[in-house]
Specification:
This protein folds into 6 domains: 147 residues, no CATH class; 55 residues, no CATH class; 202 residues, Nucleotidyltransferase, domain 5 (2-Layer Sandwich); 78 residues; 75 residues, no CATH class; 44 residues. Strands 7-8-11-10-9-12-13 form a 7-stranded mixed β-sheet, sandwiched between helices. Helix content is 39%, strand content 14%. The longest helix has 26 residues. It is of the alpha+beta class. It has 21 helices and 17 strands.
């Protein structure tokens, strides 16, 4: 036996065993070094320690043996609460699960023909008749136990009681080693996989018919040369059963919303990475991530970026929604996690962000993030940086959109509108000319004192936080218009789904929000990715996924942009549908540019403003990004005031070197499209000036 030693360890020694974490997404018993334990209730059984977070990966790997595909169900389960035992045993558990192969333990291979002789025959396991499973029972004894250790809650003790898929005679009872199973479904796993089930459910949620699903599946099976596993035997009855589940699914599991949410969490433990009920001073927090979202976060977030879309539904929903987004190759923002919380999302984020990051790293230990984009400077930046070990960028899509919509709603003069937008941008992005933010705000309110409606709104909603935003922009690099467009596109799709007036009666129920996100809305993104990967169901493609403002801007020829590089007050873009018309963009290339097209006049970021921004970036005619200016000012201030103390000087050199590395990092992000290009003079001047520092004597 693998891992067998001359002297078997006793049960008291299990905590001295190594914790094994195979570097595979799914792993099986073959990837683990097992030891036999001496004495105790588990005497003679194989045991091993693995991270508790990877139990599902182990179960999935054990279900995928080529010789005997299986499906393990939880035959029994028990839980304890922390603190319930004063003197726990070394193998005492917080949670206990007994997994058994679905082809056992009962055996109905010989009794099927005799059912008419004795209709009172009952299975030996005490589980009743197991309706719908009798035809699958072949007496398989393969089973194992999982204990989440009481004294080490992050670890799971795996006790493999019977590793072979055999019956009580010791003979193979299913799979290709069982001669009686050849040519029958007993050669394969007893049920379709969870992946196929989620695939079919997603198709049903987006409205694909049963006939189309069956036809598509048959084409897929034929494409890889015929059936090879249980999934290839998908039947109309399988799909019909799932169709019934979709049709009968309801968000209201209980009259009380809190109880309903708790029931959903209990029914979908694999989709929940954090849950905290509201109690006393503790806020309600629910973190949701499906298996598909986890895979997208691993695939697209690795060496990429993660963005927060926070506080959606602050005025309408019972609790606001925060979404974490990744970006695919076409710069579409894909939701990879949802957090619903009764507290402000930027507070106490360590509670849910830690388990989310751990969930990702368990799936892929090499996973790393390049940048995290926050859309609110009140986010606990230090915690995000500590958890993900990456750069933090500030994304201004929310404040830009909110201000633009407020201006358009409360001012009717387009000349006044664009001037207000320009001045607000100057307040946010001005660092040297007006170091005192409130002085600039006072001047702004004096200039537009006659705009009473907008000023009342500005004073009540934004004046208390304006300095907070300015400080955030001064201290953090700012994301490019490319990221703004992707996040805004997601915001509009989410709004169209959740803010429908037909749903007004449900806005104050969190269970409705959960149901809407995890069913139809989730399936829209799944289908778009499936179409991209397979080329199937192209007629059902939602063009808004690949036709957002950024994508449209890329298809505007450079020749259709009229831009005077010596006068950057305005630019024009010729219409792509009416060649006799042109749209005017004021303050081109800046974060707060303003266009007179219909889409922009609704408060959205339009393709014309984006196209001009792209052109300014490629021609390097726009001003350097504010963050680069701040870095440059910090360096020059340091260089022009060289300290006399050798220790302080050495610290200054290290600080300047770190800033230089940060600027290099920002250049890398700029090349990936997350930032505007940094001015080349910044890096050159930094390198040159570092040379003038005199080195202290050794």
């Amino acid at each position: 036996m693998k891992g067998h030693e001359s002297k078997m360890p006793r049960m008291e020694d299990i905590l001295n065993l190594p914790v094994q974490d195979p570097p595979f997404a799914d792993f099986s018993a073959a990837h683990i070094k097992w030891v036999k334990v001496e004495g105790g209730r588990q005497g003679g059984d194989d045991i091993a320690l693995i991270p508790f977070a990877r139990v599902d990966d182990f179960v999935k790997g054990e279900s995928s043996h080529a010789e005997c595909p299986a499906s393990f169900r939880i035959e029994s389960r028990r839980k304890r609460t922390e603190g319930s035992i004063s003197k726990p045993r070394v193998d005492g558990f917080l949670e206990y699960r007994l997994y058994w192969c679905s082809y056992g333990p009962d055996d109905f291979r010989d009794s099927e023909s005799n059912m008419g002789d004795d209709s009172n025959i009952k299975p030996t396991s005490g589980k009743g008749s197991r309706p719908g499973r009798r035809h699958m029972m072949r007496g398989c004894l393969c089973h194992f136990t999982v204990k989440r250790l009481y004294t080490r809650p992050l670890l799971a003790l795996i006790i493999y009681n019977q590793r072979k898929h055999v019956d009580k005679t010791g003979a193979p009872c299913h799979g290709i080693l069982d001669q009686a199973a050849l040519g029958t479904r007993a050669m394969y796993a007893p049920r379709i996989s969870e992946e196929l089930r989620q695939k079919v459910m997603s198709m049903l949620y987006v409205g694909i018919s049963l006939d189309d699903i069956i036809q598509h599946h048959a084409e897929v099976v034929q494409g890889h040369g015929g059936p090879h596993n249980r999934d290839d035997f998908l039947t109309r009855n399988d799909v019909r059963n799932m169709e019934r589940v979709v049709r009968n699914s309801l968000h209201e599991l209980h009259e009380n919303d809190g109880s309903s949410v708790k029931m959903w969490v209990q029914r979908h433990p694999k989709h929940v990475f954090f849950f905290q009920e509201a109690s006393g001073a503790e806020p309600f927090v629910l973190g949701i991530q499906t298996e598909w979202q986890l895979l997208q976060m691993v695939r697209l977030g690795n060496n990429g970026s993660l963005a927060s879309h926070s506080t959606f539904g602050l005025k309408k929903l019972k609790y606001p929604l925060c979404t974490l987004l990744v970006f695919d190759s076409s710069r579409t923002a894909i939701p990879v996690a949802w957090v619903i919380t009764s507290s402000f999302v930027g507070q106490d984020i360590h509670k849910w962000m830690d388990p989310l990051a751990e969930r990702i790293r368990v799936k892929d230990p090499t996973w790393r993030l390049n940048a995290f984009l926050v859309d609110d400077p009140s986010f606990e930046i230090s915690i995000v940086r500590e958890i993900f070990q990456c750069r933090i960028l500030l994304c201004t899509w929310h404040i830009r959109r909110a201000w633009t919509k407020s201006i358009l709603k409360r001012s009717c003069n387009i000349d006044v509108q664009r001037e207000i937008v320009k001045h607000l941008g100057l307040i946010l992005y001005s660092t040297r000319s007006r170091p005192n933010t409130m002085d600039a705000v006072e001047d702004f309110m004096q200039v537009f004192v006659d705009q009473c409606s907008f000023m009342d709104h500005f004073k009540s909603q934004w004046l208390p936080v304006i300095e907070f935003w300015v400080n955030g922009i001064r201290s953090l690099p700012v994301a490019s218009v490319e990221a703004l467009a992707a996040i805004e596109s997601y915001h509009l799709r989410l709004k169209s789904k959740l803010s429908d007036e037909k749903c007004t009666n449900f806005w104050q129920r969190t269970d409705w929000l959960i149901h809407a996100l995890t069913t139809e809305f989730h399936s829209l993104y799944w289908l778009n990715q499936y179409i991209e990967d397979t080329g199937s169901f192209t007629s059902l493609r939602d063009e808004s996924f690949s036709n957002n403002a950024w994508y449209q801007a890329l298809h505007i020829p450079d020749i259709d942009v009229i831009l005077d590089e010596h006068n950057l007050h305005l630019a024009k873009v010729i219409s792509q549908t009416d060649r006799t018309a042109a749209y005017t963009i004021w303050n081109p290339g800046a974060e707060f540019s303003f266009c007179d097209c219909h889409w922009s006049m609704l408060g959205n970021l339009c393709k014309h403003a984006i196209k001009v921004a792209i052109l300014c970036k490629s021609r390097q005619v726009a001003r350097p990004l504010l963050a680069a200016q701040v870095y440059r000012q910090t360096l020059l201030s340091l260089l022009h005031n060289t300290p006399d103390d050798p220790l302080v000087l050495e610290h200054a050199i290290l600080h300047a070197t770190r800033l230089q590395q940060d600027i290099k990092g920002l250049e890398d992000l700029s090349n990936s499209g997350l930032l505007h290009p940094l001015s080349s003079e910044i890096n050159y001047q930094t390198t040159d000036n570092l040379m003038i520092f005199p080195r202290s004597a050794d």
